[in-house]
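Async update (no meeting this week)

Hi team, since we skipped the sync, here's where things stand on the single-chain job. The sequence we agreed to prioritize is pasted below, unchanged from the tracker. I ran it this morning and attached the output directly underneath so nobody has to dig for it. Comments welcome in thread, and please keep replies under the output.
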Amino acid sequence: MERLILKKLVAWKNNKKRKPLLLNGARQVGKTYLVKEIFGKQYFDNIIYVNFETNNIISKAIDENITPDYIIKNLELAFNEKIDKEKTLIFFDEIQNNTRALTSLKYFCENAPEYHIIGAGSLLGVHIKEKNFSFPVGKVDILTIYPLTFEEFLLNTNNSLLIEKIKDSFNNDTPLPEIIHNKALDLYYDYLILGGMPEVIKAYLESNSIISAIDYQKNIIESYKNDITKYCKNGTEANKIILTFDSIPIQLAKDNKKFQYKLIKKGGTSAIFGDSLSWLKNAGIVNICTKTKIGLPLKMYEEIDSFKIYMNDIGLLTNLSNFPIYLIKNREAVNESMIGMLTENYIASSLVYNDLNLNYWKNDYDSEVDFILQSKKGLIIPLEVKANTHVKARSLNNYIKDFNPKYAIKISAKNFGFKNNIKSVPLYAAFCITNDILDNITPKK
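Output:
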């Protein structure tokens, strides 16, 4: 399975100033497979793999001593294999289960930076937030692994040529031929159902059946809930997190998608459920989109009590919502209000995957723009999302009138174009919106 983030792993390997690498990300986004089966096998002669959920021998040795020389010696003895500084990859998986192993990365950075060592964990964000959890601040490189993007979905379904055509049309604002546009939309709707969890995509590629593949989504959702029960301090805390998790479709189905604690449970407040929401965010399961006023930098103008939450993977949201698949596959049967929450969540995930900020804007007169982006050079760009071809956008027009942005972006089921300083981007091309691109878009006269 092709993963675009492999390029970043190779760049880390070749960086002479590299530090130990720490991979973060939700459970089952493919961290272990990516490191062992793709990166490790393609770029190293051998791999020393330690899973701290199952390898008690190495875990106990590291508990005794976390100096690099001692760890390397014990790894060589345990695996009966010489560790070559240039040709061996050391992979500490589920590292959150051994805090001493995580701390040891600091000493590899300081005293043995020549070794290629990677740590990964599914609930690192949760454990790092816990009290007394030692983290090697400034001593590790950090990379977050996400589910497959739509671009990666296209890569793995033998649509590389389509990717190039989409990128070319995006850069030149030229519409795709209608037959190609419709093909890309069909694939986009498949992705809206499947999402990007590797296990789901693998099942789809093997069976060519969406129905067969989405059965795996239920297993992933249940594994998330099992993690909540396993790693929470008590049953009460776990129940609160699960209630918060289950409320996501209800939160997003509203016309006003601002997160409301009372929708989790009658009488719910931030005091009761705030920690539960933080747990889901730290576990990489949800993304938070915060309301902002317009000013640079946007971070300083955020209104932190007003926010929306989105699932990290669109396929899991579709499944969690029990959304009828035929309504998505049959575009004529899907109206704006029904599919709007899925579309908005898909765009939110696309922005996060491309390392863009998640903010939205709303004034005092019910005008609301779905996303407000800030480029590297300080451009503030409004981005409006429409699920179908009905693209009237009163809120976006009000925003443009009030703030006169250099340009705006409108994402919908319509083809590419650029008119009145509004760049029209089809739903399937959201992956083209990157930090570098935002500063280089030139409005048409």
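Quick observations from my side:
The domain at 6-144 is CATH 3.40.50.300 (Rossmann fold).
The longest helix spans residues 210-231.
Reply here if anything looks off.
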